[in-house]
Amino acid sequence: MTQYSRVSGSVGLITLKNPPVNQLSAVVRHGIVDTVQKALSDPKVKSVVICGQNGMFCGGADIKEFQTLANMRGPPLIPMIHSIEAADKPVVAAIEGGAFGGGLELALGCHYRIAHSKAKVGLPEVTLGLLPAAGGSQRLPRLIGVPAALSLITTGRHITAAEALQLGLVDQVADHNTVDAAVKFALSVAGQSLDARRISNFQCPPVPNMDALFEDVMQKVRTTARGAIAPIACVQAVRAAATLPYTQGMQREKELMATLFTSGQARALQYCFFAQRVVGRWSMPSGARWDTSKGRPIHKAAVIGLGTMGRGITVALAQTGLSVVAVETQEKQFMEAKKAVSNMLERGAKRSGKPLAHGKITYSQSLQAVADVDLVIEAVFEDMGLKKKVFQQLSAVCKPGTFLCTNTSTLDVDELASQTHQPELVVGMHFFAPAHIMKLLEVVYGPRSSPELVAVVMELGKKMGKVSVAVGNCRGFVGNRMLKPYRDQAYFLLEEGATPQLIDQALEEFGFAMGAFKVSDLSGLDVGWKVRKEEGLVQPGGGSGKSARIRNGVRYSPLGDLMCEQGRFGQKTGRGWYQYDKPGSRDARPDPWMHSFLEEYRARHGLVARRISNQEVLERCLYAMINEGFRVLEDGIAAGPEDIDIIYVFGYGWPRHRGGPMFYANMVGLEIVLERLEHYAQANPDMPTLQPCSLLRKLVASGSPPVNKWKEVIKNVRSQL
Ligand SMILES: CCCCCCCCCCCCC[C@H](O)CC(=O)SCCNC(=O)CCNC(=O)[C@H](O)C(C)(C)COP(=O)(O)OP(=O)(O)OC[C@H]1O[C@@H](n2cnc3c(N)ncnc32)[C@H](O)[C@@H]1OP(=O)(O)O
Ligand SMILES: NC(=O)c1ccc[n+]([C@@H]2O[C@H](COP(=O)([O-])OP(=O)(O)OC[C@H]3O[C@@H](n4cnc5c(N)ncnc54)[C@H](O)[C@@H]3O)[C@@H](O)[C@H]2O)c1
């Protein structure tokens, strides 16, 4: 909807009204067309202001309308914006809150733009698998120049009003009432010529060596896109703006959009947009929910253990403005941590332009220092005995009602809770390394965890800029539990004839930031080795005879154990699945040693190497992971497929343009995933993780409903358990 009124005698004021973000749904487009017409035909109106209600100009096209073309009735955006630009009375956009996508394109069709100092603007279509196709790709480069437009359009980043003013994207920044400022401005420009204000008439400012610039940008975009097509189309559209007359550029924009609009990538990215919001509306099996559970404020927090994770967590907490008590018992670590935290904070302040959060942190070598904090995050070694002791101490030292959280990546949160006087005040806060940078936070509730605590931690995650996902307690929670069968398949494929490079290449071509073996080298092979030793799975020399590759009746690959026996821990030792120039170096190169190592191993176990195709790598690794994802859903550990997908996109480098593992399964076709799992399970009866789980079978039997309908089938499956 839109509202129209005449203000200050001669200014037509059009207000967009469409909660939550004044998105340009069909009804709004109708309203704009009608009210613009009204203003232009009223002789008393000399100029026009367009603004949005509730402190938000416009969040762009209504993304929900994109689900089907049939939804897209109503006046199209492009002619609507053209008619505003062609108006013979000045039209001023009053931008409060933000102008994004189609919202900014609407503002670019206006003759002037005034933004509030706290407003942000951007063309984020690329993040939805699209390009700015209501003239944005053609008008923005004409207004602010090709390099700046490329930077905004290919990344989709939001910029501040100050940056927009500097770029010439807005004409004025207002500190107080933006609509009042825009009305005043509109009065002052009434009657003036608009010839120099219609951006579609502009030429792009000349760029020296244009071809080289576009080649360079295209090269960079291809590298970072990891197979996403929208960023490439964005470069092509801007190139059209730079090289073609406006009308032909618009035609090119339309053609490129037609390709993107119906693509699977656009569907996946738009699914991710909504999934990210769905996971914020968490629920627990007890029925407790985000909208009925209230947290309480946290003023002071503590971190126990200042190793890799504790340092990052301390920084993330301090950056929210909280007071933090940071505890480390080992002298050397204590001194190093202080320095490292201070460096990280300085770098963060430089990056964000925000003031340093140094003063908020106090360091201690004694647990007694946490007596008066509201919330503790434990990040000591992954050792159940040690963690139990720490939780007993915390329970004795902390004031009653203190929330106790653990950053364990695999251990039983409920077992830790049972060490305390108030087990309902214990949850897992599973951060990812580096904890001050990585966006994901798995919030792990146990059967006794209070909804109040989950609400507190979800809110704290948000303040730290994390995407928080509430999940149930089981070994590895959601992310690491699903990673295990994926990694196992990668090892089995090595035994059967693949190389680390072959497997990683297939996974990276699929879009993963790094293949399984590069990730393993980065995080350190010794981490998993230690866990497997504690579980009694490791045998010296990998074991011998038929049982060497079997543990607890299922297939086991001792390859990782053998690598560790040789001191090949990955990047930290300069040798792992790849070789590195020196310990700590990141440039992975294939190691000829690996060839003889694998040949010897296969000979010892009577294995004959065969050719492994990329298809087999993807199917075995990804479908094993997806199958475990169905088990996670069946067990009620994740509330829905969106939770799993967001965990994988934000925590495990899953390519966002493929929507997450469960969305991907839906795109491939559940019946195909089921058929391929059955095929591989039959060929490998010693790999139970390849046996299709009953929820997958049930979904296929229910006609493979789309991913947003799975919850209904899951509810039925759970009620039968
Ligand atoms: C053969 C076929 C040929 C077909 C050719 C078709 C041609 C079609 C021509 C189309 C022309 C293209 C026009 C344009 O270029 C395309 C676009 O504009 S795409 C949209 C671009 N905009 C965005 O990406 C902005 C998205 N929103 C945000 O980033 C944020 O919401 C915000 C605006 C910064 C506000 O952030 P917050 O305050 O944190 O709020 P939330 O994010 O939590 O959102 C609140 C609520 O609003 C919902 N929502 C937000 N934006 C939109 C939107 N644009 N459309 C619909 N709904 C939106 C969001 O989902 C939340 O609701 P909830 O999900 O929680 O219910
Ligand atoms: N490293 C990762 O990538 C990662 C990712 C997610 C979660 N985690 C989890 O985070 C936790 C910490 O892992 P890390 O990699 O930071 O370990 P780390 O070995 O780097 O650091 C652990 C720190 O805890 C300190 N410590 C031990 N006992 C202590 C005590 N009683 N009081 C105070 N400090 C004590 C140690 O001195 C050490 O500095 C583990 O549970 C791990 O599973 C690690």
TrEMBL record:
Keywords: Fatty acid metabolism, Isomerase, Lipid metabolism, Lyase, Multifunctional enzyme, NAD, Oxidoreductase, Peroxisome
Residue span, 3-hydroxyacyl-CoA dehydrogenase NAD binding domain: 300-473
Pfam families per record: 3HCDH (PF00725), 3HCDH_N (PF02737), ECH_1 (PF00378)
Main subcellular location: other
Coiled-coil region list: none
Pathway(s) per entry: Lipid metabolism; fatty acid beta-oxidation
Biological processes per GO annotation: fatty acid beta-oxidation
Localisation per UniProt entry: Peroxisome
GO molecular function: (3S)-3-hydroxyacyl-CoA dehydrogenase (NAD+) activity; delta(3)-delta(2)-enoyl-CoA isomerase activity; enoyl-CoA hydratase activity; NAD+ binding
InterPro entries reported in the protein's UniProt record: 3-OHacyl-CoA_DH_NAD-bd (IPR006176), 3HC_DH_C (IPR006108), 6-PGluconate_DH-like_C_sf (IPR008927), ClpP/crotonase-like_dom_sf (IPR029045), Enoyl-CoA_hyd/isom_CS (IPR018376), Enoyl-CoA_hydra/iso (IPR001753), NAD(P)-bd_dom_sf (IPR036291)
EC number annotated for this UniProt entry: 1.1.1.35, 4.2.1.17, 5.3.3.8
GO cellular component: peroxisome
Keyword Lyase in annotation: yes
Catalysed transformations (reactions): (3S)-hydroxyhexadecanoyl-CoA = (2E)-hexadecenoyl-CoA + H2O; a (3S)-3-hydroxyacyl-CoA + NAD(+) = a 3-oxoacyl-CoA + NADH + H(+); a 4-saturated-(3S)-3-hydroxyacyl-CoA = a (3E)-enoyl-CoA + H2O; (3E)-hexenoyl-CoA = (2E)-hexenoyl-CoA
Residue ranges occupied by any 3-hydroxyacyl-CoA dehydrogenase C-terminal domain in the UniProt entry: 476-580, 617-709
CDD domains, per database record: crotonase-like (cd06558)
Subunit relationships: Monomer.
Family statement: In the C-terminal section; belongs to the 3-hydroxyacyl-CoA dehydrogenase family. Belongs to the enoyl-CoA hydratase/isomerase family.
PANTHER family for this protein: 3-HYDROXYACYL-COA DEHYROGENASE, PEROXISOMAL BIFUNCTIONAL ENZYME
Protein's name according to its UniProt entry: Peroxisomal bifunctional enzyme
Source species of the chain: Labrus bergylta (ballan wrasse)
